[in-house]
Q: What sequence folds into this?
């Protein structure tokens, strides 16, 4: 699954400019027909990236919402928690594009504010999770042995604990909570998935010849990880980050919905929380709860589909004809 | 009756176009003949072997006819070929060591496979036992999971399994490549024994290792860059090869007892051509020490002596002069 | 196999130990006196407040040494004493939780089982035809990307409010008393359906996608090619691919448990279904920390037990684990 730079690989069947690999392994290897220079390879990936429908569709959706996050606040004169922005429980109108809440707050303003906090939490939380996952995964995968056993045990423990339960306890005692806190919490509890995936990949790369070569030359472990293994997994790492990013959005929404999220910021989950608490579902005030959830579904769905597309771009075996 | 292949062309579909992996193969195989199929990596020998039984995912049949025992093999039609698979044509794949379903006991998998092909497990069980004996495996393997067996044992199981229905043609794809020398010998001898006992009629043994072929093959066919280059009885190929490529191939084999100082190992300088857009004319032209201008035109694969075919203007010239 | 289970049990044991310790530690690290501030927020009359403070001080044993307090905590835990709820005034936490638990389990268990089985079958089915695959794939991804509570709200609003097919709050109508009558059972089922269905749909999407990917992977495995070369019918090859693909799906189920439980909790909140979810919401709003801590321990224990059961199931399904190689990595 990993892609290696042909310039580093010792000569193997696939790298020979012969044009045919083993029949059963699929002639996708035959795509390595010419010895690509690094530049050509980059533009080749770009070409496939720009022509992959999944990547394009998913990516555009996410981009759209991202743009909305920045542009949105400029389009509305109301703050997210500002009272009197309109009538109470008013349906969408020219004045309030997404209608108003029970308190007369502008739903669109809340929505746009919520998008911002969503992305913020996702980047920090997802990024942190990926980072910790990389540290644990690389170390466990590369070192093996006792280090691996211990890290594995640690990973499994954190994995098994339902994070919601832990959050119940911690958040219950914290009076005021901010976005950063939520992001940190998500980062520190969702890394196991990334760690396992990265560890597995590191395992498979560890025994490759170019790593052995580096080891024999006396390069230190962490340097090997940074300069030999990680670059060869860069596409995989990127895809892992996207998954962590999407996961963070979902977790944050759940936390906010229960009331354990940030106490002072607008968020999509909080919107749904308030909506349900004030019986919006029973009273049919759909403009209040449909947008936030729809946004999350579209963004995360877009991210997932984008990820599938990325997999196809980076991994020629999966490309359709 | 045997196997007759006529002008078989099978290409690989890739994003950049078709790779002409097998570009016109014509040859015959007699009943009871063990033919070695030799050549460098990527010469098309595996493509040829596979196309006779199962076109892989990216393989595209272009043209050509295959006839086994007088009956045409519809290799271009996946479903129609099922009739012939396993019963008439069978294969020991290159990946034999991972060819068994990891979560099924071997006996159970065999029974299910046979049942799906309309054969009762009970009926073949005695024969199965005999054959397992022949390859020095205990019948207990039937009760085991593949993970409990060593690589060599798994390969032998696959050998027995693939030949269980006494196919007319067996294709053995690089089955000795991953083995040590003594096991290579044992496996090759088992195959010959299969033929002796008529478990298989004819055998195509694909390998890049000519020395094994010397031990067990009746004839050897050499391929280069998707084309057939020479076919002759084993002794002829080894001792009197006519095609320049074959000559260089044979002479590059190390000989036991000969020291490097006495006779340097010669390789064949250069690389085989890319098959996305192969060169016109003879594909060996660029590396051939005796190439001349006629070689810009592709030489046909013709018989130059009894049972001896070659594709080279030089050999035809010599043959004509002889 | 012994090693496999030994390792699992060790992990679970450590996890539980860690969880209980965290549970015990947190109140002690918060600023101020947790007990009196808790009781103050409960807003009861001063005489009662004083008795509560005494009770909890005794319970937590703040007058005793740290070590003794810790051991006492474990002792009361094993005696099934999780303290007393503030929100449900005076009731032992254990009782409150036990009242709510059946509702949560009633949602979780059928939803998990059905969605896993149906999702796997469907994913395998979708992997068959290109056309089906291309149309259903995005649906699957979108479903699995949907936040649980939002789907609940949408379903409640559309099927419940707009079409009026299902009730949208509570476990049964206010007018009825729980009884083993046909009327009650149908009423309860109607109330149960929407939360169940909402959970089911989201999980279904996830399993279907996962299985579809696994099947495609297995169909390209060496054993599949070999069977094909020997002329085995597609049915047999698919059957083997499915059986092989189920294994990682089982592992995946264990990994998802935490997320699924969270999903069930929020779904209950949406529908006012009287399970643990609603309890969580109420205890947060009423700052009933003892109840929260009790729920926390319950959830942890439940997830650990479920993990263990899945591990057992895995051993049964993957013969390789029985022979001494660890097949599962959950």
A:
């Amino acid at each position: 699954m990993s892609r290696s730079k042909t310039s580093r690989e010792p000569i193997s069947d696939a790298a020979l400019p012969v044009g045919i690999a083993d029949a059963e392994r699929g002639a996708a290897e035959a795509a390595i027909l010419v010895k690509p220079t690094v530049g050509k390879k980059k533009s080749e990936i770009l070409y496939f990236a720009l022509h992959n429908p999944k990547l394009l569709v998913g990516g555009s959706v996410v981009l759209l919402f991202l743009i909305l996050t920045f542009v949105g606040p400029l389009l509305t004169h109301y703050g997210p928690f500002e009272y009197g922005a309109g009538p109470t429980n008013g349906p969408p109108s020219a004045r309030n594009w997404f209608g108003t809440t029970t308190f007369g707050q502008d739903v669109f303003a809340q929505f746009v504010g919520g998008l911002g906090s969503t992305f913020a939490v996702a980047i920090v939380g997802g990024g942190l999770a990926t980072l910790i996952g990389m540290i644990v995964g690389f170390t466990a995968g590369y070192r093996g042995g006792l280090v691996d056993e211990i890290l594995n045990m640690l990973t499994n423990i954190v994995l098994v604990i339902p994070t919601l339960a832990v959050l119940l306890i911690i958040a219950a005692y914290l009076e005021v909570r901010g976005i950063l806190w939520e992001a940190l919490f998500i980062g520190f509890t969702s890394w196991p998935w990334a760690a396992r995936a990265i560890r597995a990949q590191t395992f498979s790369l560890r025994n490759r010849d170019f790593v052995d070569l580096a080891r024999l030359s006396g390069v230190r472990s962490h340097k090997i990880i940074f300069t030999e293994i990680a670059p060869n997994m860069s596409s995989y790492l990127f895809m892992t980050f996207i998954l962590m990013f999407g996961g963070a959005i979902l977790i944050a929404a759940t936390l906010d919905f229960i009331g354990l999220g940030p106490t002072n910021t607008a968020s999509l989950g909080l919107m749904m929380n308030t909506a349900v608490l004030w019986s919006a579902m029973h009273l049919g005030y759909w403009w209040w709860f449909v947008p936030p959830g729809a946004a999350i579904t579209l963004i995360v769905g877009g991210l997932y589909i984008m990820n599938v597309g990325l997999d196809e771009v980076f991994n020629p075996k999966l490309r359709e004809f | 009756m045997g196997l007759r292949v006529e002008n078989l062309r099978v290409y690989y579909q890739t994003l950049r176009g078709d790779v002409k992996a097998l570009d016109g193969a014509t040859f015959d195989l007699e009943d009871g003949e063990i033919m070695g199929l030799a050549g460098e990596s990527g010469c098309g020998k595996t493509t040829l072997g596979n196309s006779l039984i199962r076109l892989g995912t990216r393989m595209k049949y272009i043209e050509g006819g295959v006839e086994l025992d007088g009956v045409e093999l519809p290799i271009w039609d996946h479903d129609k070929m099922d009739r012939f698979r396993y019963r008439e044509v069978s294969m020991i794949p290159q990946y034999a060591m991972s060819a068994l379903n990891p979560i099924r006991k071997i006996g159970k998998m065999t029974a299910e496979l046979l049942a799906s092909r309309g054969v009762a497990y009970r009926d073949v069980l005695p024969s199965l036992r005999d054959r397992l004996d022949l390859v020095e495996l205990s019948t207990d393997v039937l009760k085991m999971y593949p993970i409990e067996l060593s690589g060599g044992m798994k390969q032998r199981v696959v050998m027995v399994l693939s030949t269980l229905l006494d196919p007319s043609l067996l294709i053995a794809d690089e089955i000795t490549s991953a083995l040590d020398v003594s096991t290579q010998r044992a496996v090759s001898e088992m195959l010959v024994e299969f033929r002796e006992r008529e478990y298989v009629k004819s055998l195509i043994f694909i390998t890049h290792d000519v020395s094994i072929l010397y031990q067990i093959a009746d004839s050897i066919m050499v391929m280069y860059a998707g084309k057939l280059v020479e076919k002759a009885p084993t002794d002829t190929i080894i001792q009197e090869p006519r095609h320049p490529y074959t000559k260089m191939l044979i002479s590059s084999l190390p000989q036991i007892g000969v020291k490097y100082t006495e006779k340097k190992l010669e390789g064949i300088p250069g690389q085989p051509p890319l098959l996305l857009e192969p060169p016109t004319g003879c594909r060996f032209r660029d590396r051939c020490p005796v190439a001349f201008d006629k070689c810009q035109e592709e030489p046909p694969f013709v018989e130059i002596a009894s049972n001896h075919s070659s594709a080279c203007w030089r050999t035809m010239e010599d043959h004509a002069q002889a | 196999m012994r090693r496999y289970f030994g390792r699992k049990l060790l992990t679970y044991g450590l996890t539980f130990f860690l969880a209980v310790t965290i549970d015990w530690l947190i109140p002690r690290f918060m600023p101020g006196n947790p007990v009196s501030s808790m009781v103050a927020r409960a807003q009861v009359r001063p005489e009662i407040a004083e008795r509560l403070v005494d009770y909890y001080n005794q319970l937590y044993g703040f007058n005793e040494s740290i070590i003794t307090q810790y051991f006492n905590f474990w002792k009361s835990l094993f005696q099934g004493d999780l303290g007393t709820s503030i929100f449900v005034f005076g009731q032992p936490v254990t009782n409150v939780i036990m009242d709510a638990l059946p509702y949560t389990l009633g949602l979780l268990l059928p939803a998990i089982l059905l969605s896993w089985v149906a999702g796997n079958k469907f994913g395998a089915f979708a992997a068959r035809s290109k056309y089906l695959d291309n149309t259903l794939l995005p649906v699957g991804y979108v479903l699995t990307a949907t936040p649980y509570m939002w789907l609940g709200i949408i379903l409640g609003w559309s099927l419940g409010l707009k079409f009026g097919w299902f009730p949208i709050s509570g476990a049964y109508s206010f007018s009825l008393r729980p009884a083993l009558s046909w009327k009650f059972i149908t009423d309860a089922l109607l109330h149960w359906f929407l939360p169940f269905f909402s959970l089911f749909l989201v999980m279904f999407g996830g399993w279907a996608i996962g299985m579809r990917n696994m099947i495609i992977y297995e169909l390209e495995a060496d054993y599949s090619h070999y069977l094909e070369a020997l002329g085995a019918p597609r049915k047999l090859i698919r059957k083997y691919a499915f059986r092989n693909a189920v294994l990682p799906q089982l592992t995946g189920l264990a990994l998802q448990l935490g997320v699924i439980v969270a999903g069930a909790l929020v779904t209950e909140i949406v529908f006012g279904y009287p399970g643990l979810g609603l309890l969580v919401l109420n205890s947060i709003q009423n700052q009933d920390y003892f109840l929260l801590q009790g729920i926390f321990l319950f959830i942890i224990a439940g997830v650990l037990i479920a993990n263990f059961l899945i591990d057992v199931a895995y051993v049964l399904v993957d013969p390789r684990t029985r022979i001494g190689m660890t097949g599962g990595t959950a």
